[in-house]
Write a structure and sequence with these properties.
The protein is mostly helical. The chain folds into two domains: 1-40, no CATH class; 43-195, no CATH class. 71% of the residues lie in helices and 7% in strands. The radius of gyration is 25 Å and the shape is elongated. The protein starts with 12 loop residues before the first strand and ends with a helix. Bound molecules: zinc ion (ZN) (2 copies). One zinc ion (ZN) binds next to helix 3.
Length: 197
């Protein structure tokens, strides 16, 4: 049997996904995925790598969007904080503006914690399939619910929100670095796919 892609070459293996015969050169080119997927043909290797590239691209877009949201809310918070003295002149108005400022500054940490949880959950699902929680209800019955995350992260978010004025810039920078890293990973995979002919 000859290689599906190179009809003049003898096949040395079969693709683990689609069963197509593969020559030694094709097998060598797709060897990056051998450990996780077995020997693949060029097309199956490409689509597998494309899936990973798309995963990182989506991660990058989500982080970028989060970073913009965090920055906008932080700027609004700081502006509110700056004007609450001169405009409010003490009293109730000042208190309301100050509260709004604290809430705006706290949105950054909230988004960051929520996204961290989402990414951790995605990673868990990838390794172990969908996660479910078994819960018992007050009447003794058992309910199985899709896992929505753990409450300790909620407490962490609350604490971080309370110090949002200081923590927001930190999570914005962390998200920026994360966005760049995800973009780099997506590019790396796309570049590698382009070399597979
Ligand atoms: Zn294949
Ligand atoms: Zn070949």
């Amino acid at each position: 049997m000859n290689c599906e892609r190179h009809p003049d070459r003898e096949a040395v293996a079969k693709c683990n996904e689609c069963g197509a015969p593969i020559c030694a050169e094709c097998a060598e080119k797709t060897s990056v995925l051998r450990e996780s997927c077995g020997t693949l043909c060029i097309d199956c290797c490409k689509s597998e790598l494309q899936g990973i590239a798309d995963y990182y691209a989506a991660k990058k877009s989500r982080r970028l969007r989060n970073m913009i949201l965090m920055t906008v809310f932080y700027i609004i918070g700081i502006v509110l904080l700056a004007i609450c003295g001169p405009v409010g002149g003490g009293g109730l108005v000042t208190a309301i503006i100050a509260l709004a400022a604290v809430v705006c500054c706290g949105i950054g940490p909230l988004i960051w914690v929520a996204n961290r949880h989402k990414e951790a959950h995605d990673a868990y699902e990838e390794r172990n399939g969908v996660t479910y929680n078994v819960q018992s209800t007050w009447d003794g019955n058992v309910k199985v619910k899709r896992d929505k995350g753990d409450t300790s992260l909620g407490f962490l978010a609350l604490i971080m929100m309370a110090f949002g004025i200081l923590i927001s810039p930190v999570v914005i920078i962390i998200t920026l670095i994360g966005t760049v890293n995800a973009a780099k990973s997506a590019k790396l995979y796309n570049d590698y796919i382009a070399t597979l002919q």
